[in-house]
Design a protein that fits this description.
Helix content: under 10%
Shape: globular
Radius of gyration: 11 Å
Structural class: mainly beta
Order of helices and strands: EEEE
Strand content: 25-35%
Length: about 60
């Protein structure tokens, strides 16, 4: 199954644009690491703080 991909460039300390992720386990990759967002609820917006090691914080907006 193919996935639609979009690559964005981020800058340290700056907030990215809004991203919609359809697959919680493999829908978001940062620094070649998939970010697991499966602990969230679909239809709810979250703020993710990630670094090159992966997800640091996930909080509901």
């Amino acid at each position: 199954m193919g996935y639609n991909t979009k690559t964005i460039t981020t800058e340290k300390g700056k907030v990215t644009d809004y991203l919609s992720v359809s697959s919680c386990a493999k829908g978001l990759k940062v620094a070649d690491k998939f970010i697991d967002s499966c602990t969230g609820n679909f239809g709810v917006s979250y703020l993710l703080v990630v670094d090159s090691n992966g997800k640091r914080v996930m909080t509901e907006e």
